[in-house]
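Backbone-to-sequence.
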């Protein structure tokens, strides 16, 4: 089992920044690719970003490319999502997920473990 705990969400004005963190425990963190997803009220959970086990490259949804950056620190068992130039459309609950694979994925069903989520609200 892998336990994932997100933190760093909150209320921010449009144009502002937040950094989300996801702390993992229970298994060898470096064996897992990590992803961030988000879910707005009434919408399906959607892919935001993913990163492989080596942490040398991130993949992003088109809607966040150039504004969000995913990174990981295997020594701290933590994955981050730096969010800049936030927009009201970014308002959602953000979830981190772990996949037992070298590579991340854009598909929800490819992930084995999920956190409980952290709320991000962007005001206009």
């Amino acid at each position: 089992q892998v336990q994932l705990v997100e933190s760093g969400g909150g209320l921010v004005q449009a144009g502002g920044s937040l950094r989300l963190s996801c702390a993992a425990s229970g298994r060898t963190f470096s064996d897992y690719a990590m992803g961030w997803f988000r879910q707005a009220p009434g919408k399906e959970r959607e892919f935001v970003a993913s990163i492989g086990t080596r942490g040398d490259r991130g993949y992003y949804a088109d809607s966040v490319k150039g504004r969000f950056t995913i990174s990981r620190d295997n020594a701290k068992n933590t994955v981050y999502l730096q969010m800049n130039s936030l927009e009201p459309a970014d308002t959602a609950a953000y979830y981190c997920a772990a996949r037992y694979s070298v590579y991340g994925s854009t598909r929800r069903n490819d992930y084995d473990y999920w956190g409980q989520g952290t709320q991000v609200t962007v005001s206009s």
